[in-house]
Amino acid sequence: MEEKIIKKSHRKQQRASHRLLRDMNIKCCNNPTKYLMICNAGLVTGFKREALQNITDPIVSKYDIIMPPNKSYCFIKCFSVEDAECAYKKIHGHVKINGSDTPLYATFTESVPDLDDQLIYELPSGLRLIENIITEEEEKCLLNSISWTTEESVSSDLKHRRVKHFGYEFEYNSNKVDPDKPIAPIPEEYQFLQTLFKQYHNVPYEYDQLTINHYLPGQGIPPHIDTHSVFEDSILSLSLGSACIMDFKREDKKVNVLLPSRSLLIMSGEARYAWSHGICPRHNDVVKSVDGTTTQPRSTRVSFTFRKVRRGDCLCTFPECCDTKAKSSTILIDDKIAKGLEYSYVHNVYENISSHFNETRHKQWPNVLKFLHSLNPGDILLDVGCGNGKYLYEQQRIFKVGCDRSQNLMKICYKKKFEVFLSDCLYLPYRDNSMDAAISIAVIHHLSTHERRKQAISELARLLRPNGKCLIYVWAKEQEKDSAKTAYLKYSTSKKDNTTSCEQKLTEYGVTLPVHENRTKFMSTDMLVPWKRKGGGNFLRYYHVFEEGELQQLCSQVPMVNIEQVYYDEGNWCVILQKKAESVCLE
User: What's the pTM?
Assistant: First the structure.
């Protein structure tokens, strides 16, 4: 048994050593030093500073504790090597974590991080936090006033929390309210809050919409920006019960704000219109205490969010996030703009993510394989937009050729010894009537105009021999068709209730597009979808997601082919085309 513990301890130390060197460029060592690392407990695991203090106090009289945020390890900085050795002998493998059967594992390090992260931040412009705005008695009265069974308001159970609406119902499928459909007004017993708010943030209107959210420990809300055109500038959120961390983000800027119980958060101006805000679903938050950084468990939290419903367009100065500006700046995408969009948000992106794409794209879709197996021995198949060549493997009985617009993806295919060419799907370098079959999997949805999508299908039809077949896959806007969630939504965690409002991005080509929140329903047909690259660096890819019947209607405009089959497959609209026997292209 002792040997088993020693082996497990050694593995823990090795893994922690690799993480430490990677994260902070600090090395572990075998010889005793003044610095001790706890390998398997830290803030990210819910290990409290107070717990480590209770363990260390009986052993060492003078020491410092360093607990890096978002890490599964922490440090004890002793003032002598002898103290560190003593702490190591009594802690390593002997002290259990939070009363569990898992012991703490320790090792010595050459140094420790210079400073414990004190969570110092500057609030975004327009964001104010007022603590203790109400008394404990008033908080208790507000919590007792809420009944989830009465019919005086609209209440519902989302998958991640319970909500109640007054004044106007917030419609989560559109992230809006209908100003022509009022519901039960905000109760009179909450009127004192409106009076109190004016003392700290005086606005020329009364708030007429209230959403009450009920959060259990571990529940949160996805990052979002409240829709601009629906509500006036100021949004107020009163926190009751448990404290929690709210995360604010704008581009590469991130700010984590602790919302204590009985505090009022005021969002206006830039904070309201340009910064997303959300609550990460977790049971503990990393907070600053008197002694340093530690973890703070969450309990039940209730928030009162007050808004003023707006009638008319938004007049903000943040067009990249504004739905009004998106509508007013919508222009006809001509071929020149389309080429620019696709170069910046498709071609250039895939050049940058090619290695990560290759690492994450291996599984062949069953219905695509079914199509390949249906081909005759000796047939020539062209895979248009073959990517890393995952459909060019095997199938020795047919001859496969691939092409793609990405030079880096083609280099990957070359190394795999596939027969591939660098080519644009709009201008395929193949003779008319030269292919027995073709596939285009997840390609045409990257084209930004109807005519360009039609041209891509026409190119596929042109190179097919008479009676040749083609399989096309494109992303479907409907990700929950027939009440069956696709894999795209199944792996959603914090976003299952789809309450996220899309941010808007004004591209360098004068077109404003919504930025889709991954693992949520598609709220628009044309959008930018994030790709988070391994090792850092996020990119936005342009997509046109197809609505039901759209792909079929598009293919019907190509006279050379008949539509043999249309089906839905795991979040994709799919079509099998057959070239008409009489459609012979003359050279």
Answer: 0.51
